[in-house]
Amino acid sequence: MHFFKWDLLLIFWLCKLAPLVRSYTVHIGEDAGERTVVAGVERGARCTLDQVLAPKFTERFLETDAAAGTVFVSDSIKCASLRSNPFTVYTVSDCTDSGYRHLLTSQFEVHVHGRNCSNTRKRKPQWDMEVLSLFSSHSQHRTECRQAGSALFSVGGLLPGAPIHCKVSNSRDFYFSEGDLFVSETLCWRQDILLELDLLCDVLTGVGFSTKANLVSIHWRVGQGPFRQGHLGKLLEKAAQSDSGIVSSRRRRSINSSPQFQPPMYQVAVAENKPAGTPVVVLKAVDADEGEAGRLEYFIEALFDSRSNNLFAVDPASGAVATVEVLDRETKDTHVFRVTAVDHGTPRRTAMATLTITVSDTNDHDPVFEQQDYKESIRENLEIGYEVLTVRATDGDAPVNGNILYRIINGNGTNDVFEIDSRSGVIRTKGMVDREEVEAYMLLVEANDQGRDPGPRSATATVHIVVEDDNDNAPQFSEKRYVVQVPEDMTPNTEILQVTATDQDRGSNAVVHFSIMSGNTRGQFYIDAQTGKMDLVSHLDYEANKEYTLRIRAQDGGRPPLSNISGLVTVQVLDVNDNAPIFVSTPFQATVLENVPLGYSIIHIQAVDADSGDNSRLEYSLTDTTPNFPFSINNSTGWIVVAAELDRESVDFYNFGVEARDHGYPVMSSSASISMTILDVNDNNPEFTQKAYYMRLNEDAAVGTSVVTVSAVDQDINSVVTYQISSGNTRNRFSITSQSGGGLITLALPLDYKLERQYVLTVTASDGTRLDTAKVFVNVTDANTHRPVFQSSHYTVNINEDRPTGTTVVVISATDEDTGENARITYFMDDSIPQFDIDPDTGAVTTQTELDYEDQVSYTLAITARDNGIPQKSDTTYLEILVNDVNDNSPRFLRDHYVGSVMEDVPVFTSVVQVSATDRDSGLNGRVFYTFQGGEDGDGDFIIESTSGIVRTLRRLDRENVPVYSLQAFAVDKGVPALKTPVNIHVTILDVNDNPPVFEKDEFDIMVEENSPIGLVVAHISATDPDEGSNAQIMYQIVEGNIPEVFQLDIFSGELTALIDLDYETRSEYVIVVQATSAPLVSRATVHIKLVDKNDNVPVLKNFQIIFNNYVTDKSSSFPTGVIGRIPAHDPDVSDQLHYSFEVGNELNLVLLNQSTGEIQLSQALDNNRPLEASMRISVSDSTLRVKNSFTEFPLCFHEHALSLHLHFRFTSPDNGSDDDLITPQKNTQSKGAIQKHNK
Predict the structure, then answer these.
(1) How far lies 547's CA from each of 142, 450, 524, 550, 665, in Å?
(2) 662, exposed or middle or buried, with CB in 10 Å at 0-12, 13-18, 19+?
(3) Mind giving me the DSSP string for 875-901?
(4) What does the pLDDT look like over 415-430, one tens digit per residue?
(5) What is the pLDDT of residue 561?
(6) How far apart are CA 873 and CA 522, in angstroms?
(7) 131 backbone dihedrals φ, ψ, rounded to 5°
(8) Given this model, what pLDDT does residue 1188 score?
(9) d(CA 1122, CA 1190)
(10) Distance (Å, rounded) from C-alpha 691 to C-alpha 712?
(11) Contact partners, residue 290, CB within 8 Å, separation at least 6
């Protein structure tokens, strides 16, 4: 390559000021053609290309056209031969404009692209351009001044395009206007002074539609004086030492050092509810620079939640952080900021740290119940310890201020049957609950958070507990026995009594139904099942039945129902004088011997009265008598006796009457006639014509019906035979009268087959003195006089719903007091109910289909019993069939499955989800409780409340161990056997930031090749966080070992970037401590960054001389035969092995060289007195790089008296006479670099 040498000094200082460039990026292909332009000079001003600086390996394919001001491709490019890609080409232009000369350097980053090409990213320069401008002095003085507001020179011609807008920064001495650079105030320059400024310009580049605006940054130095080598050298020396200059040596750091935070992470706490402006922390970074470069400005920015920016502010000058608003821990308890400290140097340097502010808790929240009013219903008679419900309160404060305890405030009195678990809030029964005593409870529950700062807070909730009724009380009659008197003549369908029973239960359990269980054999009474009103439904007959005793059942409507059959009703029939006396025979005929004594009883006049009491007490009297009537009648007994002596011859026949009068009201009476014949005395007994009579009489025969006529014959002349029933006339059912010489037996009172089925009457025939007897057998035959009668008008039976078809439910029977066909009963149902059938003969009611309690709980059948008499008679009763529930239905959940979620840090007993199931059965069969037993409870991490179905946490959860639970609960009824149904519950555990980031190892090594480009990512630091989402976001930072700032760690990606060139020979290892933060949790690891040595240094070898003084005598030989030294070469690359060789000058082998160690020995050919001088060239190679140098050998001879007994070897550099460059086997303390051998 051709170089236009301006001055060696200028090139040297341009190396020091390499960033004084205009930066371009050039992309060419590996197959780029010849004359392809790589770099050039701008033509806006009068500029000439002065120098081109490029890597040596580019000499093969790059050349310079000085006239055209371009650098172009002259030969093919091969990527394999490129030492670096991209590579940098610098051009130095000398521009003249309006009395100014500008030294303008341009940097071209050349990227070569091709199949075998690889590109390495390079760090972007700080400025796009750097310009050194000098103006000529117009005076003889060394100082030149410019007035304020005067233009210095035009800027546009030096830029890569037309400037749209420019702005001066980092200097108040200059400003830009209309394309020129002006001075703000009067400025004076000395020849050794450079004033500096930064210029930011929007520049139009491109042509036509491709025109676009680019931002260009220029660092400008302005001075005065000639463009001569000496003056320019001094200015460049100052520029190289200025803060804004960046030296080219890759081992030199910027003079403007970066600030450093100590510590790199702040963790502080501030109490909530403090007023705005409360101090939090003072951030402090240290910058070693002085002046503006060391003045820091602080900034904070929220990392995870932008709301934090509105709550805190930092004083940019002091770094003091304070609150802006009142903080609320419950809204956000942790705030994480990126803290930045920026200096005011050029360029501006920054340091970063993290600030984690934890808001500490104060007890500023009352506990809050899940519900302000809880409502629950329970059944009475529950077992002690039954869980009624769980109240739950939460407290937004931290655990120390949210440790909630529960208590029942009004737990005395009737409420003492309940207690509450102070920790869990479970309300249980501790006594028996009886609805009949207390129907509802109102508990006032307090939750106290036990807080200390400033004190405990509490809240209350009301729990309303309604007691549901159990059918635990049977109906109770208002009286043990009801007595009612009913006149026998009361009109049917008249109410005679109100039966009352009450039930202490409620609802259907308290609805009472009445029925007559027994005593209503004739069906004369009816009781209304709903009201208990009892009616007379048919006529009463005191004479038939004077009193009825009925047993009443009171049954409630519970399931199952309870009954009381202790109710007794006595119906006393009151007699009414509704029957006149009836003479047993009329007319009466009697005979009496005329010689009977006074008081002789002639005939017993007998009348009967069906009434009772005074109504049936009779009084007899004779009627139609004459004065001195010889007969009288006992008015009580009815016997007619002789009251005066009889004289047949005087009167042989009497005809008179008799009256029977009762004592009732109104008085009723009957009359009969009596024929009395006075007989003469006789001596023959009457004799019956037959001794026994057999008769059949239907029981429904009417009174007065003739039964039979008996006949007796008396042999006496004119004897009159009279007839009487002397015995067997039970209940005076029959009477006999004398008629036509015989005795006619008639029916005096109605017959009753049930009472007497046969009568044996003894009939006496008397002629007044003598008598005879005969037997009359009367067999009573049954008549259909009675209807069938059920024992009760209402029957109730129970049957289990699971009984098979054909099961006999009950046998219903009715009785009929008749006999035979009249008593044969047939049963049938009035309505067709398909579930049941009744046997017509037995009255057995059986099931026809399967019963289901859940479909229908009861059936009412109207059953009729009908006899087979003529006419047919019947009775109807009602059969209530209650279906008993059998546990044939499993509980059923309202959902197929349940889903819930809960934060992993919630306290124990937190509610997660509530399941609910129903059971169609009733009573205990339908009472559901919940359990995890037999299911899955998350290894004991969850419990389920047996009554409410609320699933709660039982232990602390950890999402990182178990993120999702698949639970299985059961709903179980209390039937026997119990039935249960499973349900799956899916619980997702939500993450909280409770795990610090974790490095794979606490200490690890990173191998980095030296000479890696600045800005190269040398490693990825990574940690893992078991949390998820924003809780797993990790920030990385270097907290130790990075002073001075060699590496930069990206806060989010963890990319570790080198900020300077890494040189193994300068430092082979860096140890830093990195920190991973997931606020407020942190972890640290130690990183050993070990550089891998590259062969980037040429072996160092200087020219040297060997001066050999040989002392020769005849007596002895002192010529050295061993190693006299080693070639003074070394290689900064510690891993390189050097190889030594002679190139020219040692053809006679005067010096013996060890090619591996560089050790030197002298040939025996030098052991003489001849002076000799030889120049030799030695090559030293590290297998890649080679260096060549020469040395000269001077053998000197001295007289033996001159050196006495000493032999000297001297190795020295011909340039400065230093002996340090030749490495010798040993050193004399008196002569540095000399080898001294002593001979005696």
Answers:
(1) 158, 78, 12, 10, 22
(2) buried
(3) EEEEEEEEEEP-S----EESSSEEEEE
(4) 999 999 998 889 999 9
(5) 86
(6) 12
(7) -130, 140
(8) 53
(9) 22
(10) 10
(11) none
Give DSSP secondary structure letters for 101-168.
Answer: EEEEEEEEEEEEESTT------PPPS-SEEEEEEE--SSSSSEEEE-TT-EEEESGGGSSSEEEEEEE
Residues 6 or more apart in contact with residue 1101 via CB below 8 angstroms: 1127, 1128, 1129, 1178, 1180, 1187, 1188, 1189
Residue 309, classed as helix, strand or coil, is helix
User: Tens digits of per-residue pLDDT, 109-163?
Assistant: 888 888 778 766 555 566 677 788 887 765 555 567 888 888 888 887 777 777 8
Show the 3-state SS of 366-406.
CCEECCCEEEEEEECCCCCCCEEEECCEECCCCHHHCCCEE
Closest CA to 194 of 158, 127, 243: 243
Side chain identity, residue 711: S
- Whose CA is closest to 92, among 225, 232, 295, 223? 232
Helix (H, G, I), strand (E, B) or coil at 1076: strand
What number of other Cβ atoms are within 10 A of residue 476's Cβ? 15
| Closest of 426, 424, 501 to residue 463, by C-alpha | 426
Cβ 524 vs Cβ 542: under 8 Å = no
- CA torsion through residues 1217, 1222, 1223, 1226, sign: negative
Among 1086, 1075, 990, 1085, which Cα is nearest to 1034's? 1075
Beta strands in 1079-1166 (DSSP E): 1081-1092, 1100-1101, 1104-1110, 1123-1126, 1129-1130, 1139-1144, 1151-1153, 1159-1162
Q: Encode 23-33: b = buried (16+ Cβ within 10 Å), e = exposed.
A: bbebebebebe
Contact 1219, 1232 (CB under 8 A): yes
* Residue for token pair 């060890």: 1154
Q: What is the pLDDT of residues 669-716, one digit of tens each?
A: 999 999 998 877 766 789 999 999 999 888 888 888 899 999 998 877
Start-to-end CA distance of the chain, whole Å, equals 64
Tokens in use for 615?
């109504």
Domains in the chain: ranges and CATH: 25-234 (no CATH), 260-360 (2.60.40.60), 368-468 (2.60.40.60), 476-574 (2.60.40.60), 586-679 (2.60.40.60), 687-781 (2.60.40.60), 789-884 (2.60.40.60), 892-984 (2.60.40.60), 998-1092 (2.60.40.60)
Structure tokens that stand for 623 in this block: 């009627």
Q: 408 and 444 in contact (C-beta within 8 Å)?
A: yes
> Alpha-carbon dihedral of residues 1198, 1203, 1205, 1208, nearest 10 degrees?
-80
698 token code pair: 């239907």
Q: How far is residue 424 CA from its own chain's centroid?
A: 18
Contact yes or no for 720/746 (Cβ under 8 A): no
Average pLDDT, the chain: 82
For residues 296 and 319, give the distance between their C-alpha atoms in angstroms, rounded to a whole number.
9
Q: Is the dihedral of CA 1028, 1031, 1033, 1039 positive or negative?
A: negative
Taking the C-alpha atoms of residue 722 and residue 772, their distance in angstroms, rounded to an integer, is 10
pLDDT of 243 reads: 44
Q: Are 690 and 772 in contact (CB under 8 A)?
A: no
The two tokens of residue 943 are: 């419990």
The dihedral formed by the CA atoms of 722, 726, 729 and 732, expressed in degrees to the nearest 10: 70
Which H/E stretch holds residue 694? strand 692-698
Contacts of 875 (CB under 8 A, 6+ apart): 523, 787, 788, 789, 790, 814, 864, 865
Torsion angles phi and psi, residue 593, rounded to 5:
-70, 145
Task: State the Cα–Cα distance between residues 109 and 89, nearest whole angstrom.
Answer: 7
> Exposure pattern of 952-969 as b/e (b: 16+ CB <10 Å)?
bbbeebebeeeeebebeb
Sign, CA torsion 302/308/313/314: negative
